[in-house]
């Protein structure tokens, strides 16, 4: 849908800027221009041109008024010409009805002015229909997922219902809350387990809880919440105020959660045009990103998707029906008097007013439909007379027009009415930007004057029926589904003015029209309710993926028999309470903030973006000013420097003399010194040592100092900002471990796994497919540089949301146990498979159940590849079902040395597993260990979760379960019971070390066993040959340094010494002073 169609698709009741319609081109501005009326179109052009010339001449004439009387005369002539043009246009508009007799309105043919009709094109408003073709192709047809019928044929072992999260902006009494209550009631009948998350508490909290649905208040900030959305199969959010929740769902690790977002008002859509005019592209892009996150955007009316066309990303869908019209009508009747409204519009109490409403779109044929309605009224008046039989009141037609229509459209209708013989005041025209609800409330009947084929029952008619007004509608499919002719409304054949006149006469003369209106009101109160519940169930079946441990929802046919027809009004007030009494009691304690649930976030974001733009503009202005100031200063300083003073000259001369004296002295001293030059390499090494010492002297954080004194450090692996609220912040026992540099918490001392192991974790594929094992490999890579505690543990962020994280009591008990070393080389774990105390289920059977039946197959293939076993090897390491528990969710603690051994084993196993299934998963995008696409990116995670159990059991480690609540400990699979069952030779440290060295030697020699080899990327590549090579390199460097030192010493010895310039003679004691005679002279 293009933007032009969106402009014309505003709902009735929308507000527009004054003068906006006047700025539009003629065809978009006025529905009459698209009718094919050639003379009318030319009249429009002439009128506009005439007015333009009048203004221009008026301006010129005013300036010359005092110079010539001819100017005033010319001015009057031009005004007369303008008036004539205006009358011609108005009369032309009124004469159009004369050709209506020959027009085929039912077929929609444009044969009144065929030549003009051929030349003019039909804009987007004509025949505009919303068809979610892109959504159907993308979600409903192209997902490649198994249908519910296929899933029901499979063997499943579910133990829980499918879970859904409902996001409500508040828990106040509002039509949106009633809408969500009705949806929840239908989804419960389908078999879903629901949980409500609200941004604000309210009166409906008890209602939700009485339904057995838990309610949680969200602590939502920008891009984060305190909810683990991975616990749900899907999320249904309501209102624009849920935007922050949608933004948090756009963060890892929640990006694959299916989301349905319900938008029930046009508050944002009406402002998109203003954003575009104001060039607020950042604000539009922000909303578009939020809309794009939802898998399905649901609207209760077919007009709303066209209003939000600017934000459409191919996920729009319409589920017709909402209780908003009924709610609006009941509240309006309590706050407005019908008598006062009629008096304000100069309507007598005995008059009979028929309000004419229509489509929310502006299209070409609108004027023809209004003309037909007025012609039908003329026929009616000819039948029943000008006055009503009882009371003598007049029959009036109140036409409610589109806000974007031209200002002269009402005058054109009046001219047409006069030509039809309708008296002045019989036909009135008002714009829909006024109080439409009040217009309907003060009228006596409502006529739907749009004869197009609507996609659903119009909300404006639902509002009229809720106001207990009898309705007259065309006999089309959308109307026949809700209106029974003569029972709750009147239907007429489209395009037949005689049938329409008969329908109006029936309303006028029918004494039981009050009963008809009451039936219509009762019908409107529960319109589309059952369809809404089942439609959401159908959407969920199309986008959700049901894991093997979850039940499948009931069929829609079965649920249709169980779903209660109608909106859940009885949940808001007792069944015996009259409908009006509920709204009267609510009106006494009404909260204004609950009426417009979407306006809050819109205002907040507008203020945020306004402030952001202001700051950017201020910064840009400041930078420009600073640059200008610096350029001026530099120019001034350069000019000043070109003009030296006398003082500068004296100073320069003194400096020059000092430099000459210093140079002479230095030359004399250099001749008497021995030169010892330091090589550049030695200087570089000295600088590096200095830098290292500086790093060592860098102040460490308090948490790091406290952690270094502890016996245990537990790392919390996480991926994505959505996990931040579940991490420990001030407990020094824990340390965050981010799998991605981008999503690392700012200001914390979290370990960046991507930096420590870039070869593996820079690849998004392996970061997702290995899950926590990427964190294990990153910590184990040169572990002595990052981890200095004797014990190491891991507790992923999801343990907090699963309520299996260690409490303060359990932390103290675990810390005491590892500090004392009472259990020796043990593995402590506090999250176990199945979540129950004792499990008699076999380990491999449970592994098969959680990996789509391929656990044993994958483990056996990897086992053969690891140890080079033949294809005839079919045995797996025994894991007996002795009633003990097994570790789950990677929540365990073990000695650091044991952790290094485990990583030796895990690296080889992961490499063998990836070799076996990489092509199938990465290239063909098929993962045999998961059932659905949502789980496919974490293909190996479920299989690798149990690997630590196999290693701990067969390497002879004690396995101790720690209750995460109380801290009590209980040993599982006692060592005494494992005798004769452990495969020690496969898990011996010497064996694993030898295998690791063989792989390292092959990697060091570039002797890769296959083209794509994962093992070297998972950690340090080191073997004895590398150690020997490094030792020889160190010996060679040491010998080179010794040789250079010897050469320096030899160079010093070989230098010539300075010759003696003189000698001092010391006289024997007592001989006195030397004589003036030279002592070297001989006596004659």
TrEMBL record:
The chain crosses the membrane at residues 77-98. It comes from the Eukaryota. CDD domains: GT4_PimA-like (cd03801). Residues 392-513 form the Glycosyl transferase family domain. The keyword Transmembrane applies. InterPro entries: Glyco_trans_1 (IPR001296). GO terms for molecular function: glycosyltransferase activity. Residues 17-49 are annotated as: Disordered. Keywords: Coiled coil, Glycosyltransferase, Membrane, Transferase, Transmembrane, Transmembrane helix. Residues 652-707 form a coiled coil. This is Glycosyl transferase family 1 domain-containing protein. It comes from Ceratodon purpureus.
